[in-house]
Each structure stands twice: as C-alpha cells, then as structure tokens.
Queue: 2 jobs
Job 1
Amino acid sequence: MSAQASKALKVITGSSRFGTTAEKSTVARAATNLVAAFPAPTGGRDDVCRIYTADGTPDVTIRVTWGLADGPPTGTPAPDFTLLKMGERTLAAANRASVQFACRSARLSDSSRVAHIVIGVEHWDVPKEPEGDVEALKDAYATVAHSVSLAMAKELRCEKDGGLPARPVLDPA
C-alpha cells in the first residue's frame, strides 16, 4: 500500500491503526489466483484482502477484491460514481471505487491475450449515507484502489504497468 493510500485509509476509516488480516491475504497470492483463473472471466469478486481498524478504534472493514472481466468496460456507470482518468475505467463513489486495467504479461497462460482486471475497494458494512466530505471520500477510495491496482500490475509484470499512472489521477474524466 502506498503512503498516499495509507493516508486515504485514514480519511475512509478515521483511523491510522489497522489490525492484521489472514497471512494469505496479499497481492502476491491474489495475483497467483488470477493467473490460475485466466483467461476465463471470474464472474465474481475474489478477495485480495480485508482491512480492519485496530482494536480500540471504531469498527470499520474495507474489502479489497479482484476480478477478471470478459473485455473492456462497456455501459454507463451508476449516477453515484465519478469517472476518473486511470486504466481502462476507474469509478469512484463515497463508499467504494474500482479500477479496471488491461494487462498483457508473460505470467499469463496466453501472453498474447489481454487480461481485463478489476480491482475493487468498498466499505464492508450495511449501506448507509456516507458521513463526511463526499468528494474526499471518493478520492480516498480511488487512491486505495489505484494503489492495489498498481501493485497487482507490478506483481503480474503487466506491460507498462497495465497503463496505470505512478500516482492516482483524481480529476474527473
């Protein structure tokens, strides 16, 4: 997780302390699972990890997921999302964000094919109205999603880091 993403998690959770997750909850493990699933779309979301606030702080869980899409994104996003200029499509809302990027890599079983990878970050709780600055929350979720996406692209050794910038781009598309 980048330093920017760590600061973003504080915006989301109100805490700078986090508990531990399962030993297997890593980008490296998620990348291994993605490679095994490729080229079939996953049809669902698989965990990269869950981020928990530490004991003694307000209880917040953030779920980070990965998925394989069957192609470039299509359709119009829901109105609560802001479209950002990262990867194939980045969507940010006040309680979640996703980054889809294209990856061509020798790690994939057919390196001539492109994997369309979706990384999602969402507040794992009963849906409710977001509290606080909605724009700051959107930026925070997008920053965390970008950080995990870039880590996944690097772990997979995607050409040109899957087209992801080194730092998150938070300006609307």
Note: The helical segments are 3-13, 27-37, 134-156.
Job 2
Amino acid sequence: MPDYDDPAWRPLPLRPAVLRWVLLPLTVLFLPLWWVVWLCLALFFLGVAGVAQLIVYVVPRAENGAVRVLDATLGQVPLVPLWCVTPVALFREGDTAYYRARVARRIEKQTRRAENSPLQRDLELGAHYFRGAGAGYVLQVASEQGWNAHPVLRSHPRRRLRLRHNGRPRAGFTN
C-alpha cells in the first residue's frame, strides 16, 4: 500500500497558464509525429517479440523475461505523452471533481469487463487521465472494486498506474 503522505501519490501540481497555452499548439503539431514514431517502434518490437516467442518455445521459463523486456522498451514510450495537453484538459486543469468522476467511470467500466471476461484483468492509466485526482485516489477507488497494483509490471504514480483485477465478482453485483 502506498504512503499517501508522499507527494508522488497526490494530484499533480497545476501547470502555469502560459505553459498550458504553449503546450496546446505543440500538442497539435507534434502529437501526430509522436504517434508515427510510436507506431514504428511498436512494429519493430513486434518483430522482436516474434523472435522472443521462439526462444520461449525452447525455454518455457523465459516468458516472464520476454514480457519484462517488451515492457522495459515499448512500455517506456507512452502513446499519449505526459507533456500532451488536450483542450478538455486545458479547461479542466485543477478541477478535482471532474478527474475523480472520470476515474470512477473508467474503473467501473473496466471492473465490469474484468468480471465478465478473464482476459480483461489488466488496467493501465496514464497520468493525463488522473492528473487532477492523484494516483493515491485512483488506487483507493480501484482497491474497493477488486483492483490491486500489478504484481509484475511496475507503476509510477507520476506517470502511469498499472492495476490487475483479482477476477472475483463484487458482492451484490448483477448484470
């Protein structure tokens, strides 16, 4: 369980107004380029994953190592970078209630998926998603619905949270 007094688990500080208005045009200009680079990296590492899969067939215990290698490479390059600011985020900067409602909706939706399908047990949230609520709040709300920190993949409260559902339905849950 995290130390909620640690500033890393609290909401991220507000960006200065000037920086927010500079980041919006930079996002519009550089985000498509970022996605092209990300796609090229994903295709490259997909090829590397094919070779790693051959090694896994020969050495079965290498599977965790292959997952860790792919996580350590492609997992470090987010699809939506932390510097990216959308128009909604620009106007909702500092609105804690908005971010808390957003987190609650996303966790509820993923909880329904995890309880209905054993393949949907992982959840990854980028910091842009919970910026105003804080990683501690996300973990607190998620733990009430059966989510815990991922046992293999690490979370970084200032960048991303990785959670895994325990797979059991909640008490009183009906479809």
Note: Helices lie at 17-58, 63-73, 87-91, 96-116, 127-130, 135-144.
